[in-house]
Design brief:
This protein has about 110 residues and is of the alpha+beta class. It has three helices and eight strands. It has a single domain, classed as NE0471 N-terminal domain-like (2-Layer Sandwich), CATH 3.30.2020.
């Protein structure tokens, strides 16, 4: 069965997704933004595979979600209040983020899930 969202909603400060496999993900907006997979946030590799990580600066608007759209039946593209909208979060990546997120109030930021 192909993974897809059945329902997506913004619930308070969380991005909530009910998945086609019966699971649910609740992602805190700050956690979601800090794990943006785009090249401007994560960097991109050169021909030798070296990744240059950019220095990303966040403001309070960086963690407020303006909206989102489904892209090609495989990803969600959020638009943030600071104007950032280049991240494509694939459905499997979003589901992995949901299981990697620390409990609310968990403190330190975890490393990027693989």
């Amino acid at each position: 069965m192909r993974l897809s969202p059945l329902h997506i909603a913004l619930v308070g400060n969380e991005f909530a997704i009910a998945w086609s496999d019966g699971t649910e993900s609740y992602l805190e907006l700050e956690f979601l933004r800090r794990h943006c997979p785009c090249a401007a946030c994560c960097g991109e590799s050169d021909v030798l595979g070296n990744v240059a990580k950019p220095d990303v600066t966040y403001t309070p608007a960086s963690f407020r979600l303006r909206g989102w759209q489904e892209v090609g039946g495989y990803a969600i593209q959020p638009t943030w209040e600071d104007g950032h909208k280049s991240g494509l979060y694939t459905f499997p990546f979003l589901q992995r983020l949901g299981s990697a997120q620390p409990p609310i109030g968990g403190g330190a930021n975890p490393s990027q899930p693989s």
